[in-house]
Amino acid sequence: MDRLDAMEAFVAVCNAEGFAPAARRLGVSASAVTRLIAGLEQRLGVRLFQRTTRSVRLTNAGERYLQRARRILLGIEEAEDVAQSEGATPRGRLVVSAPLLFGRMHVGPLVRHYLERYPEVRAELYLSDHMVNLVEEGIDLAIRIGRLEDSALVSKKLGETRRVLVASPEYLHRRGRPERPEELAHHRTIVFSGLSTTTDWRFEEDGRELRVRIGPSLATNSGEVAIEHARAGGGLACALGYQVRDLVRSGELEIVLSRFEPPASPIQAVYPSARFLAARVRALIDIMAAETDWGFVDLEGP
Question: What is the 3-state secondary structure (H, E, C) of 12-69?
């Protein structure tokens, strides 16, 4: 049994959450994947999966092995990339992660443009508002909005965006325009859980943080639903500038309490290492740096 083949099959089963989809990704039969996993478990002397007719779950030993297996496979891929010449044409598998709405609006079109330029690359774009571990998930590059907590990651700033409070002109005419954050207690509010995990909205005044507890009239995990509800007169919504810039400029939404906004958040490309940066990843970063215009601070401009 080839150890690397078995390790790749194991990681593929974990990523695809099943033997059959993993086999399709690897271009082999499901029985071949089953044999590789069985041989791996026999050699290790532990069971890596708990299998039922409906699901495949990792055992505790499987979870520990998965973390190390992903690091090993990533290291092999990096070593192969380094062995290529500096001017090699980008090729191979490129995995990109981005926030759901920002990815749909801005990263998706950029990846399409990238693939037109580099047709030998096979790209995978995963959109989610949940933070992912780049190394453990095998992600080459992620777009993140906000300050980085993981100092081990390399970052390149591509723009910035404001966090704003918006409402429709009709709602503000009907309910009045709040002048201070404390007045939000008397307003209908809309919460997007992808932007905040609490019902506290954060503001700043003279360098001092203000937190306001709100009781939302609508809570949703969809930014698009929250913004559309605000546009339709449903209340005040907290949003990021890129999500509402066009609606603000068209007059369908208005920004309120702007003087209490926190500082703008950076929009960054992050990746695990600059030392072993594959040609396909570097090419994407170069395109982002040269061709993106991700400045979402001047929302009221033309």
Answer: HHHHHCCHHHHHHHHCCCHHHHHHHHHHHHHHHCCCCEEECCCCEEECHHHHHHHHHH
